[in-house]
Amino acid sequence: MSEPSSLPVRLVHLVSEAGWPISQESLPPTARSYAASLGFKPMAGRLLVLPGETGAAVAALLGIGSDEGLVEQPFLLGKLATDLPAGLWRVEGWIENPTLALTGFHLGQYRFDRFKTVAREAVSLQPLPGADIARARLVAEAVSAGRDLINRPANDLTTEALAQAARQLAERFRAELREIVGEELLAENLPMIHAVGAASAHPPRLVDLTWGDSRAPKVTLVGKGVVFDTGGLNLKPENSMLLMKKDMGGAAAALAAAEIIMGLQLPVRLRVLLPIVENSVSGPAFRPGDIYRSRAGTTIEIGNTDAEGRLILCDALTLADEEKPDLLFNFATLTGAARVALGPDLPPFFTDDDELADAISRIGRDENDPVWRLPLWKPYRTMLDSKSADINNVSSGGFAGAITAAVFLKEFVRNTRSYAHFDIYGWTPTARPGRPEGGEPQAARLAAKLVEFWNSIKK
């Protein structure tokens, strides 16, 4: 990362609780007195800007807590991006994973400014020793692009606009892209995507992006792209509808992961499938009690129109599964039950491949993109039984909502052994270092890293 040499460089000292007494004594008298007067303690994430003799900021202290602070919270440098005065800074102190730390800093620089007219001054860092600068920037740019998509309001990010974002990514990396729109979905045997999106003025569609050598291992990413979810005829209450612009967070995560994979030129044949709809209310809206035959031939009774994400995913997953990819992921803001179980920051994932599950958990921890395995509990399949069709899109009771949704999706993945479903929230409700409040394409960094090492994992 090159920076203009004319900028003055100020230091950020990383200080731990154990090392603070020594660090404190090494400070200039004015800075030491200032820190003491404020009772500074190097708790993780505590930042103190130090004044010089004239009162201008000359340095800063960033508390990391224990000596393992940046191991436990590798995105702490994201705090610098939001809280330091603008200018060029250099970090001094030991960092175990400088590439991940630099990624956290860049992610902390993110602002959703699509509709802002006021420019802001930036905080810059000199290169961290040992960091892969290009990789950190690539990953941060991909995640930021995903955040932008999730943060865009539904009047701006229509079904057409989300497809256009995929098209622009395909053009950038010379990928092939096919788009199936409106009534063409019926001709192409994608009836569930058509049914869910039929009531909107913005036509439903499926985006099918392919990239890489056709002879390479096949990796397919499927992302739920509901640009806005009213709940359909099972209309959501007001408070539940406020954040429904983020219901395309699965598509954003798939595109972010794809951008990293293509940017790193990984030796895979990548496919990205995005079923894109707006779940609206009008005359053609699908209804509770309706029965549709999916692409797989399975008949589905609509128990609730607000469980639309699994309906569009079932057709896309069937299409993905038909070519038996080596690795298949789907990302979806699918259930509130997942948030009740694990909260907004820890998405559950589901797979019956134990080797894949171990790799996902480990890489999620290593990449600071954590997830938690929940079971694909087959006995719960009976909760989805229908008296009139092969399956209902919702369970008969209020229990295990995230699990029954995952079990529903697994019905449509029959040929692919290494498959995982990520039930993401897609949103950071409270800002933290490296994670500003707003859209977040969770599990995208994890998925890209796993794809990078998948061949070695399977050997």
What's the alpha carbon Rg, rounded to whole Å? 24 Å
CA-CA gap between termini:
36 Å
Q: What integer is the average pLDDT?
A: 95
Shape, per Cα inertia axes: elongated
Contiguous uncertain segments of 5+ residues: 1-5
Give your account of this protein's structure.
The chain has 459 residues and is an alpha/beta fold. It is 34% helix and 20% strand. It contains 16 helices and 19 strands. It has helices at residues 20-26, 29-37, 69-72, 78-83, 98-108, 133-151, 159-172, 184-187, 191-197, 238-241, 249-263, 309-321, 336-342, 354-366, 401-410, 444-458, and strands at 9-15, 47-51, 57-63, 87-92, 123-125, 176-181, 205-211, 218-223, 225-229, 269-279, 291-293, 299-301, 327-332, 348-350, 372-373, 391-392, 419-423, 427-428, 438-439. The strands form four sheets. Strands 6, 7, 8, 9, 10, 13, 14, 15 and 17 form a nine-stranded mixed sheet that branches. It has a five-stranded mixed sheet with strand order 2-3-1-4-5. Strands 11-12-16 form a three-stranded mixed sheet, with helices on one face. β11 (291-293) and β12 form a beta hairpin. It is elongated.
